[in-house]
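User: Sequence in, structure out. Go.
Assistant: Echoing your sequence, followed by the structure tokens.
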Amino acid sequence: MDISGKVVLITGASSGIGEATARAASRAGARLVLAARREDRVKALASELGDAIAVRCDVTDQAQVSSLVQAALDSFGRIDVLVNNAGQGLQAEIEQISIDDFRAVLDLNVVASLVMMQAVLPAMRRQKSGAIINISSGTTFADVPGTGAYVASKIALERLSAIARNELEGAGITVSTMIPFATNTEFMSSIRAGRSEAEAMTAGADFDSPEQVADAIVELIGSGDARMDLVPVAYGGSRA
């Protein structure tokens, strides 16, 4: 899909990959719906980018998701692309995982992404076109101690994406998965638990920029491929 003139809804748009994707999509001529809990930041970004609206939304609240989608339709009349970017990390070994933390991460990383897909699909079906990009993580390529809860949530999201893609075949709607590598964002500072352990694990790693990931997301929207990863070959990915 060429996103010039298309309406692109991005969750978690207040920083990092979400903000960078908003900027990349804007440069490509898209009209934007920017969603995040930090309303001041998405409002500032929307005013900077021009043909965009900002909506405060906690994607774990189904009523707020419904209001977000309605705001997009009221402003632009359609939704062409959903980038399911909102998410949170959790670092803890299996015996130490707080069940409340695990449920919260599953709710945000998996259930909320499904709620967002369900919310935009009626409009996309009416249009007979659409693209959904679900953001996973390169941590799914390895069995690193302490990542079990987070990886479980992202593997679940990947399977939801793949099955949704098959279910929507013939409807003009593609569902794709983007798998970034380590990226220089606020992810570590917002991790739900185990921040110091996660920082120690990634110390010395070469981080991609959010802009690299954003450009790849725009490319994936354009190709409609099932998935793309930015994981180096040395870690089991496809990036040379």
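User: And one key feature?
Assistant: The beta strands are 7-11, 31-36, 52-56, 81-84, 130-135, 173-179, 227-229.
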